[in-house]
Recover the amino acids of this structure.
């Protein structure tokens, strides 16, 4: 039984990774293009891109990663909550790195692109799309 559960976890993680990699690449590219073109400061660029990708990410994870048969509004509310917490963490990382450590905003975006997906997988699996 444990082998089956571990196998399923890897299956979810594989699909999650595909959706997550696409979203992370989009986040990384769009945010950095906005910063590079000087259309917005790094914090605004990050918030804009993160918000834009919430819907795409929800649809990908609900339909593909976890293959939810019937999407419930509570799942979207939980997903939105997770996304907003992720946004706060992202903002904190950007603020801390750029304001206190004078680090490149590109380093901040790289850190966010690694940390947020790891947190999201476990929260999505065991809270947002948890099956009873």
């Amino acid at each position: 039984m444990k082998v089956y559960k571990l196998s399923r976890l890897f299956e979810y993680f594989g699909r999650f990774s595909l959706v997550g990699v696409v979203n992370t690449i989009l986040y990384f590219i769009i945010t950095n293009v906005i910063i590079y073109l000087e259309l917005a400061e790094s914090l605004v660029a990050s918030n804009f891109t993160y918000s834009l990708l919430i819907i795409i990410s929800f649809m990908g994870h609900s339909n593909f990663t976890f293959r939810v048969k019937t999407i419930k509004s509570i799942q979207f509310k939980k997903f939105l909550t997770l996304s907003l917490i992720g946004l706060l963490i992202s903002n904190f990382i950007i603020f801390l790195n750029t304001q206190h450590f004078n680090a490149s905003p590109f380093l901040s975006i790289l850190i966010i692109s690694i940390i947020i997906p790891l947190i999201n997988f476990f929260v999505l699996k065991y809270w947002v799309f948890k099956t009873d």
The chain has a mean pLDDT of 90. The radius of gyration is 16 Å.
